[in-house]
Amino acid sequence: MHQGGTGSVKGVARSAVQIQRDVIYALLLREIGAQFGRSRVGALWVLVEPVAHLVFPILMFGFIRQRVVPGAEYPVFLVYGFMPFLLFKSICLQTMEGTRANRGLLSYRQVLLMDVFVAKALATCMVQAIVYAVVLGGLAMLDFDVLPARPVEFAGVLALTVALAFGLGLLFAGLCSFVPDARSVIRVLFIPLYFISGILFPISRFPDEWVRWLALNPVLQLVEMSRLTGLERYEAMKFLDIGYPIGLALVALFMGLAMYRLRYLARVTT
After folding, report:
1. How far, in Å, CA of 69 to CA of 235, rounded?
2. What are the contacts of 243-247 at 24+ separation with CB within 8 A?
3. String of DSSP letters for 51-101
4. Of 124, 89, 54, whose CA–CA distance to 219 is shortest?
5. φ, ψ at 14 (rounded to 5°)
6. Distance (Å, rounded) from C-alpha 191 to C-alpha 64?
7. What tens digit of pLDDT does each residue of 216-255 get?
8. Where are the domains of the chain?
9. Confidence of residue 144 (pLDDT cuts 50, 70, 90)
């Protein structure tokens, strides 16, 4: 029972942190339901889509052409490259669409736009963790060695991937608020990004001159770090520098939060 108009329940007032926590939790449940869909088919598709991206190259390069990767079995090599890329892409795009997909929720006083962004990123991480577990479990059933060689460092690489993706997602959301058509362009750009991030083949096979330029791609850096920490004897590319994606993640987060502060809060208060 509310008492005295103070927003308390049974005499216990909730702090702003508790309110924000409850809002994010409610949004998180909503986002997980949205990503899995309202039916069993929707939940199944969340798992089938990434598996479909993996099956063809595994069959084509892993079994038919017997492609060999130094220090790794090709299916495991492919998974440790594709799954971080999928995590990065999903968080970027889900965060970018945070405003358009949840505009109605912002009419509630307790719901901040940042709550929506955080809930979308957390929901995507949880969904991708389930997908990751299913894919690795499937390979383990086929007698592949799938456990990460250095699990703590591997978890750090995934955390860095999330940070960079979230920062860029905030920037993309701000850009799309000015130029709505940018959404389509950004989605298309992930297609060439997929091919220049070393998902299907080891970048170390290319000449050093090419690798030097390709290494400017932070997603490639993260993919190589994922394989380096996940695979026992993987030979990573030259010019691998963990400081590079860390620096870009910090810059992206700073700029994304600054754009949120200047753009979105101004829109909410006007």
Report:
1. 9
2. 244/215, 244/218, 245/160, 245/164, 245/218, 245/221, 246/160
3. HHHHHHHIIIIIIIS---BTTB-HHHHHHHHHHHHHHHHHHHHHHHTHHHH
4. 89
5. -95, 140
6. 25
7. 999 999 999 999 999 988 888 888 899 999 999 999 999 9
8. 18-269
9. confident
Q: Exposed, middle or buried: residue 255 (CB in 10 Å: 0-12, 13-18, 19+)?
A: middle
pTM score: 0.84
Residue 166, SS3 per DSSP: helix
Query: Any idea of the CA torsion for 41, 47, 52, 53, to the nearest 10 degrees?
Result: 140
Angstrom distance (rounded) from CA 92 to CA 138: 27
DSSP string, 94-161: HHHTHHHHTGGGGGSTT--HHHHHHHHHHHHHHHHHHHHHHHHHHHHHTT---S-SSHHHHHHHHHHH
- What pLDDT digit, counting tens, does each position of 123-142 carry? 889 888 888 888 888 888 98
